[in-house]
Amino acid sequence: MLRRRNEGSRTMSIDLTEETITAEVQKTFDGAADERTREIFVSLVQHLHDFAREVRLTSEEWFTAVDFLERVGRISSPTRQEFVLLSDILGVSVLVDQINHDGGAGSATDSTLLGPFYVDGRPRVENGSDISGGVPGMPLFFTGRVVDSTGLPVSGADVDTWHSDGEGFYDVQQADKLHGELAMRALLHTDLDGWFSFRSIVPRYYPVPTDGPCGEIIRAAGRSPMRPEHLHFRFRAAGCEPLVTMLFRGDDPYLEQDAVFGAKRSLVADFADHEAGETAPDGTPMTEPFQTVEWTFTLASARR
Ligand SMILES: [Fe+2]
Question: Do the Cβ atoms of 163 and 203 come closer than 8 Å?
Answer without folding.
Answer: yes
